[in-house]
């Protein structure tokens, strides 16, 4: 769509006099090029019942005039670029919306508490305030509007609150308070929410037990209770019951597409109940204490696109070609176990096309040849393996003519087996590392970058300090082999995605933060299905 044309057409239509009779204005999915929302909307379109400006690259302050649209039943201003609600507040914005049904202000920087007038909005069915930088205590009364179906408060880190008891008449379908400061017990009566399809309460402060009444929520397609530190899973109780068994009722929620059980202190054998969930597209069991082998029944979950088993105590030999059964798999995380990954050298065509592949500490001894045919990969981890020999030339070839940005990590100098290096046509700047093979690479390995300096280029570096090697402890006390730190973000041309090549050894601490970032980053992108054009996320 030609956006600028669309834009002027739509705006002139909307803002000519006589437009006051418009009932619906839907300009979602346009590109208003960071302009503010025109305040005239509030003067000229007083009959509006539906206003949708989502995903339209508006920015700046939401004009207070919007609050005059008192007939609105739908207001969707979500997913714009840095819209803010500062000059006015949420209360004044919505207080006249007496017939509001759907209110979506996700990604608007609201920076305030949540006004409790919302509990009087008896017609409210959808309240979506994701990532709004809300804080304070969430008014409990907002759970009461009888028609509320969707309550989405995802990622308001400083917003606290608790989940009240529910009676049979609730119509909740979606309850998402993940990554907030919600706390307390999950009431047993949550089992009364028979229509619930999404329960997302990960990374909050709930305790002490996941109520078993959840087993009655047979409509669930999305269940993420990651980081729910169930008291029955604590170490002192480990002798009493195998934790995977205590949650085996999850295996009866046959409609689940998404199951998040990361950081849940699961221990013992693999939770076999997941093998029952044949609809699963997303399974996260990372950061638990699961031991034993990866059962082959996992390969029956053929809908999987995301499988995270990293940071457990899994062991045994895993034949990598098993994953060829998971045709849709795009993300696989096996790092941080005691696995031995067996990759046959003649393996390639049948594997899924990975976007994310974390194979740190998988007892690999060779640089996996199949990577050559993995054209969609943007996040590869191979640290803490026993890979020896050279990084194949084809691998470096893949770094050419992309959008590598930042400095060339000076640690690369220590790679005494680095025989080929070509980062031409990227966006690198700063000094070219001195020494070792870097002395042997020719000028054309560095051509067409933003501002590289130093030998072999004629361009001298101005700040001589920056060319010095920083002290590094990463390489000390290690035996020979393949290790260096390297995590550049590469934006492939035309695709909004980052290649994060992390080949790091013995550097667990530094890596943690990185893992965390990648985890949240990739989950947000894959799970939440947000459109990639948001400036904040790019
Ligand atoms: C607004 O428009 C977007 C894009 O077309 C759509 O996905 C969204 O559901 C609409 N919002 C509402 C509340 O109807
Ligand atoms: C709300 O409506 C009343 C009466 O229609 C009006 O006087 C008031 O200015 C409106 N408030 C806002 C914030 O628009
Ligand atoms: C809710 O509505 C009632 C009756 O209309 C009113 O008395 C009360 O002040 C309202 N509550 C809030 C928080 O606005
Ligand atoms: C059940 O909830 C509805 C709506 O929240 C409320 O109107 C009703 O009074 C509640 N019933 C009981 C018995 O609590
Ligand atoms: C599940 O629902 C059944 C019937 O509605 C009820 O009898 C049972 O107590 C519920 N189980 C739990 C654990 O809430
Ligand atoms: C162990 O589990 C029992 C019952 O399952 C519970 O009452 C007790 O509080 C738990 N102990 C600890 C230390 O968490
Ligand atoms: C698997 O699903 C079937 C059908 O719902 C159920 O009968 C069975 O108990 C489930 N098995 C496990 C291990 O949850
Ligand atoms: C995988 O599924 C097939 C057919 O659905 C079944 O026969 C087999 O037992 C399953 N394998 C495992 C390991 O569960
Ligand atoms: C890998 O796949 C490519 C293209 O699909 C093919 O040309 C090549 O021969 C395969 N290599 C091996 C070792 O099977
Ligand atoms: C790593 O793989 C080698 C064979 O390549 C095997 O002998 C060794 O036992 C494996 N190490 C572990 C910890 O599994
Ligand atoms: C590097 O890429 C170029 C162009 O795509 C190709 O012609 C060349 O064979 C590649 N070299 C290696 C070693 O893969
Ligand atoms: C590096 O790649 C560029 C093209 O991207 C090519 O012109 C140049 O010859 C290459 N340099 C070496 C040393 O291979």
UniProtKB/TrEMBL annotation:
UniProt entry tagged with the keyword Nucleotide-binding: no
GO cellular component: membrane
TM helices/strands, residue ranges: 488-510
SUPFAM superfamilies, per database record: L domain-like (SSF52058)
Domain of life assignment: Eukaryota
Localization, UniProt: Membrane
UniProt-recorded name of the protein: Uncharacterized protein
Keyword Transmembrane helix: yes
Pfam families noted in UniProt: LRR_1 (PF00560), LRR_8 (PF13855)
The organism of origin for this protein: Malus domestica (Apple)
Record's keyword terms, sorted: Glycoprotein, Leucine-rich repeat, Membrane, Receptor, Repeat, Signal, Transmembrane, Transmembrane helix
InterPro entries xrefs: Leu-rich_rpt, LRR_dom_sf, RLP23-like
Major subcellular site: membrane
Signal peptide: 1-20
Membrane topology classification: Single-pass type I membrane protein
